[in-house]
Design brief:
The protein has 243 residues and is mainly α. Helix content is 66%, strand content 0%. The protein has two domains: 10-85, RNA polymerase sigma factor, region 2, helix turn helix motif (Rna Polymerase Sigma Factor, Chain: A, Orthogonal Bundle), CATH 1.10.1740; 90-242, Arc Repressor Mutant, subunit A (Orthogonal Bundle). It is built from 13 helices and no strands. The chain is globular, with a radius of gyration of 19 Å.
């Protein structure tokens, strides 16, 4: 990847220099979330572009720490690079869309979030086959968190409402400070207890899936399944409330 010629003020250049190690930290954390053919050099190149973008767009009037702002720009840039590499096949996209459509249909029919058993039955799969399917599409859920949920100028992203954007503000305060975050807070309550716990530990406590598996006493694969289903469910509900 070729970087564009830098055209930053000294302040922006200083922000980049002082936060270079953040790129490596995030690459290390995210290495288990990407396909095997995307190596650390690919991730670091994308992460550097995210850091540069963060320095260009950082607004000191927002009262948010640059390091916190940069972290989500870096993560987003790495996921964007995965999209460009087209690491997930059309078949996997189709599978994820099938799960999403089935979940929406069942929720409308039942008036509540369907259980895994109900989802499996509706899709004419065994419970084991359905859970395996969730595992297959789990990485797509991570990538799609950075897609815009609406078509506004701000391009509100799903992940922006799951993460804490200030080290000095509690998650509850963050949620109360935006309409989109309020919607996510509302739909979070509709998840199963385990799904809510997985989302909380992953996005607020920043535990890895392996660490969450140890906390809940289940396999890492099961955490991947719960995470995948929770994200599909949340996005379905959030989109409905936005329209």
């Amino acid at each position: 990847m070729i970087y564009p010629k830098p055209q930053y003020s000294e302040d922006k250049s200083k922000l980049i220099r002082e936060n270079l190690e953040l790129v490596d930290i995030l690459v290390g954390r995210m290495s288990t979330q990407v396909p095997s053919f995307m190596n650390r050099d690919d991730m670091r190149s994308a992460g550097m572009m995210g850091l540069i973008d963060a320095a260009n767009k950082f607004d000191t009037s927002k009262n948010i720490l640059f390091r916190t702002f940069a972290e989500y720009r870096i993560r987003g840039a790495i996921f964007d690079e995965m999209r460009k590499l087209d690491w997930f096949s059309r078949t996997l996209r189709d599978k994820q869309n099938r799960v999403s459509r089935t979940m929406a249909v069942l929720e409308n029919k039942l008036g509540r979030t369907p259980t895994e058993e109900e989802m499996a039955a509706e899709m004419e799969l065994s419970l084991e086959e359905y859970q395996d399917l969730l595992g297959q599409v789990s990485h797509l859920g991570c990538v799609s968190l950075h897609e815009a949920l609406d078509h506004s100028d701000e391009g509100r992203q799903f992940i922006d409402s799951l993460v804490d954007t200030s080290e000095n503000t509690s998650p509850v305060d963050i949620l109360e400070n935006s309409e989109m975050a309020g919607i996510i807070a509302d739909v979070l309550t509709e998840l199963s207890e385990k799904e809510r716990l997985v989302v909380s530990l992953y996005y607020y406590e920043e535990l890895t899936q392996k660490e969450i598996a140890e906390v809940l006493g289940v396999s890492e694969g099961r955490i991947s399944q719960l995470h995948s289903q929770a994200l599909i469910n949340l996005k379905n509900k959030a989109r409905l409330k936005l329209h």
